[in-house]
Amino acid sequence: MTYLTTEPQMTTAAAADVARIGSAIGDANAAAAGRITAWVAAAADEVSAATAILFGSYAREYQTIMSQAAALHDRFVQALTGAASAYLDTEAANAAVALNTLTATVRSLLGRPASRQCQNRRDRTQRDDGACSNSHHRFGDGWQRRCRYRTRPS
């Protein structure tokens, strides 16, 4: 079985690098376009005129090929950017499934959620009895304090 590992941030950076390279090549082609397509015969004879026409046709073919290469390059950059986005979306979806599974497991074991946002919300009917431990436990995305709560007397 083949496994594929990718870094979406590196793919996005590569797409940006490829786009910069394409931009530099496009600028160089645009700067040279006038000089390579405007051939003037070196002399007034037929051979010089035919040579100028031949080189002019080569220059026009080069410009056509370079415009096709630029379009291909743009599609390649779009494909790299799209792939990075797709991998990020897939990672986010997989992380959400894993987090939901972990949260459900922790909730079933501890009777409360493991996330800091849910843990730090105190019901108005409960109060802190001052028996918080200084031990920290790593849950979800941050350090958490584990506290014991008692039901407030009526």
UniProtKB/TrEMBL annotation:
Residues 4-94 form the PE domain. InterPro entries: PE-PGRS_N (IPR000084), PPE_sf (IPR038332). Residues 115-135 are annotated as: Disordered. Gene3D superfamilies: HP0062-like domain (1.10.287.850). Pfam families: PE. Residues 120-130 have a biased composition (Basic and acidic residues). This is PE domain-containing protein. It comes from Mycobacterium ostraviense.
